[in-house]
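Would you mind writing out the residues of a protein together with its fold in C-alpha cell form for me to study?
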Amino acid sequence: MNPTIWRAAAKGAPNLSDGAARRWPGALPAGRLAKLPMLPMLPMLALWAGAVAPLAQAASEAEEAMRKAPMPHQIYQRGGVPVAVHRARLDGQQNSPGGEAAALAGLRQLVQQCVASHPGAGASLHPPTQWPEHVLALREDHYMAANRSITYFNSVAHAVRPDDCALLARPVSRAVLVSSKGSCQIDLLRKTARGVCDAGGHADAAGEPRGAAAALSGAAAGLGGVRTGQFKNVAGVRCEIWRQSAFEATLCFADGGAFAPARAAGNAGWAGLLLETDSQMGRKMSAVEAKLDSEVNSAVFTPYNGDGFSISAKGAAK
C-alpha cells in the first residue's frame, strides 16, 4: 500500500487524486482472515496465564486510516451526473465467540507463543507494545438508488508475523454493485472488476417491480427474519428493527424516504438501507452517518472506470 495514500486517508482528506482515490485504505472480509500468515492457535501457555501485564489498547494506524478515509461519494465526484440515493456509513467489528475481549486475548496469546518459540532471539523480535481496538475492524459504505445499489466493504485484520512476532495489519477494500442486470465484484486495491461492470454502473437497470419490497420481506421471513414493529433512531434516521433467529441477528433498516431503494448488496433478500446489525455469528456494526434522499455523483457506482482497472465481463442476469 502506498504510504502517501494512508497519510491522506488518516488526515481525512475530502478529495484525493483520481489515481489515489481508487486505492484508499480498505478492508479484509472475514472469509479472507484465514489466509493471513498467523501462528496456529495452541493451548494457552502457563506463562501467559496472568503473568503478562496487559498492554495499552488503541486504534492501530491501519484502523485509524480506514476510519478517517473519506466516504466514496467524497472521492468519486467527477465524470457523472447527479443520482438520488439513500446512503449510510457503518463502523464496527467482526463478532467472535466470547466477544471482542476474547478475540484480543487470543491475539495476545499468539504473540506470547511466538516469543516463546524464539528463545534467545532478543532484539530481533518485535512484539507489539500496543494492542489494536479490534482484531478485525469493519467499515461499510452503502449507496442505494431506486434501481441499483453499491456497497463498499472495508476492513483491517490483525495477525502475528511468525518470524519476528510483530503485529501485522492487513487491509482489503472491495465493492459490490448490484441491480436487476446482475452484479459487479470490485477489488479496489488490486484494481480488478468482474461480472456485469458496464460503463454506466447499471444506470439503465430496471427498478424493482411494484410489490418487490413485500416479496423480499417474505423471503427474509423464510430465513427466520421477523419484523418486530419496533423502531429506533440510528445516526438521526428512523429504522425498523428485524430479528433473525437463524443467525442470532438483530438488524435495523431505514424507514421512510421519497423512494423505495433496490435491495442492498449482500443482505440475502433483505430490502432497504441497513443502519445497524448485530449478529452473534457475523458482524456488529452501526451507522455513524446516514441520510435519506441524498444526491451523489453517479461516478460512485463506477469506481472501476478509473485508469489501471482490469475488467472481466460476464453475461447479464436473465
Observations:
- Confidence is low (pLDDT under 50) at residues 1-53, 214-219, 264-269.
- DSSP finds six helices and 14 strands in the chain.
